[in-house]
Amino acid sequence: MKESKTFLGVPLARPRVAFFELSSCEGCQLQLLNNEATLLDFLSLMEIVRFREGMKEASDDYEIAFVEGSVTRKDEEERLKGIRKQAKVVVALGSCACFGGVNQLKNRFHDLAWVKKEVYGSSPIDTQEVKPLSAIIQVDLEIYGCPIKKEEVERIVTLLVLGEEIHHPQYPVCMECKARENICLFDLGEPCLGPVTRGGCDAWCPSNRMGCWGCRGPAPEANLDQLQIIMAERGISREQMLDRLECFGGFAGYLASQDGMNGKEGTKEE
Amino acid sequence: MLFKVFPVCELNHLFAVLQSERIVGPVKKGEDQHGRSLYDFDLVRDFADLHLDYSQTIHSAKKYFLPYRENLCTFTFEDGDWQKEVDYGGSAPLVFFGLHSCDINALNKLDKVLLGGRYPNSFYAKKRANVFIVGHSCTPQPFCFCKSMGTDSAIHGFDLFLTRLDEIYFAEVLSARAFHLLENIDCHEPDSVEHRRYLEAIAIRESMFVAHVDTSDLTKILDLEFQAPVWLEWGKRCLSCGTCAQVCPTCYCYGVEEHVDMDLAHGRKEKMLYSCNLLDFASVAGGHNFRPESHTRLKYRYYHKHRGFVEAFEEPLCVGCGRCGQSCLARITVPEVIASVRAGKE
């Protein structure tokens, strides 16, 4: 049943939308249910045919697929390819889907067999190197963040329904952090990836006195060489900086380009 | 100019009289890791929260006239048609208590651009109209170069300017409203001793400036050094983060975005203060970016402030407050950049 909506007299189709989760905490999907004040408007824009966090029914007839999570198993690869076949638009939802997210931290170990043994002990599961969606299929749109910001999803979904172009902010987190007039975390002696991380989160973490960990990945112009100097000048170790850059996977490209910087950690045998 | 003198203890009475309106002033917002106080402008309800001995605020008072984000108009969509509503904002009077000369001069410069041109900015004008400004003397900080920019003292753009001389305030009275305001407190005309004390205080302050910018022939030098390699060096350091513009009291550039609400019944056109240092500042329709490299963007900011604006208004679009250099994590400061360009460093 497709209720018709109109905008400026022009009828708009309510797209059939499905939500999927690969390896993830499903926190991004829960974010979508969090803002009760706008939930009904949000739901009225689309026809949701699959959303495990909010409904029992599940249909495979959809036009837009929001996929949360990273690919960590062979069967997830197959599932993702199936979603790509069906959906006109595939949206990577959240840092795991966009960059591998926290899950990709395991990639830094050479010996995945050892990782599996450490984590799962005597009940191992099928697991492989963590990949973002874009390593397996073509992704049409990325929504960054760990978790995603509901307001941003609402803006993007509205644009999708209206058929408008979608632009992400090009500036780093500092821009919005300054607009909120926060005390710079570097002035407090704390590390922050705000100067190199893509904005659009309204400086969510720095506004709560927590330095940015780069969950939205690098800004299109991210001066990481200068960031390293900034950290060093303030007595923040290279290790601390690398920990942050590695955390969500968005900076994997930069880390790989650094000689000897991304040296995978050796396997500790005990 | 009319001068008055009153004891420092009278100041809270002045504050109390003005308190029938909202008062904005310097407040302490925290301390940095070395225990140094950090200040910003905010609404002040209690006289005790007013820190008139502040060194410098992190951000300027610009946001009260040019908010970081502001709706230029809102729309209502109904029956296939639409209505547009415009609210210029800023109808409530506002008192600024304790602006330094640099920030008063910054407003004067913004006035020239936003009120003086052929198309005055109604949003700015509305907010600017109903303000009462009490200036306050300052202690030059190591990063202040207002003297080089000719903005170390304000000759207009305030109602009352207070210079602290130990136990008294030496007040410059510029508006009728300020004159009548002073009738509420115990003050008198300065005598010759107080005149001398005021002049001595000015001379002491003059001697305290550390940072300088040589502005002689600067517009020409900037033209000659347009291709100077030193710009590349500064560009390498620049984070393209927009912090300098956000804290700057005179940066007024902006971007505009349109938003449709999820109910599809309302929309708005939103203005957001932007920075010429941001990657997409000079991106145009069709996808071309006129300044894709960071050194070209950084250079553009300097050329606007110290060349283009000087040619148009015979003064730079910089008041030497030093905020951009203080907030820049890459430690890019105006005195250093201009000195390096002047030196024609290779």
Description:
The complex is a heterodimer of chains A (270) and B (346). Chain A has 270 residues and is α/β, with parallel strands linked by helices. Chain A is 34% helix and 11% strand. Chain A folds into 2 domains: 5-162, Rossmann fold; 173-257, no CATH class. Chain A is built from 10 helices and 7 strands. Chain B is of the alpha/beta class and 346 residues long. Chain B folds into 2 domains: 2-206, no CATH class; 218-342, no CATH class. Chain B contains 12 helices and 11 strands. In chain B, the strands form 2 sheets. A 7-stranded mixed beta sheet of chain B has the order 1-9-8-7-6-2-3. Chain B has a 4-stranded antiparallel beta sheet with strand order 5-4-11-10, with no helix packed on it. In chain B, helix 7 packs antiparallel against helix 10 (294-313). Classes of the chains: A alpha/beta (270), B alpha/beta (346). The interface between A and B is large, with 43 and 41 residues.
Summary?
With 270 residues, chain A is α/β, with parallel strands linked by helices.
- Please work out how many helical segments of chain A DSSP would assign: 10
Number of helices of chain B: 12
What is the radius of gyration of chain A?
20 Å
Oligomer: heterodimer
Helix content of chain B: 25-40%
Strand order of the largest sheet of chain A: 4-3-5-6-7
What fraction of the residues of chain A are assigned to beta strands by DSSP?
A: 5-15%
- Helix percent band of chain A: 25-40%
- Biggest sheet architecture of chain A: 5 strands, parallel
**Kindly state the mean pLDDT of chain B as a whole number?**
96
The SS-based structural class of chain B is alpha/beta
Give, in order, the helices and strands of chain A. EEEHHEEHEHHEHHHHH
Number of domains of chain B: 2
The domain count of chain A comes to 2
Strand content of chain B: 15-25%
Number of strands of chain B: 11
For the record, what is the CATH homologous superfamily label of the largest domain in chain A?
A: NADH:ubiquinone oxidoreductase-like, 20kDa subunit
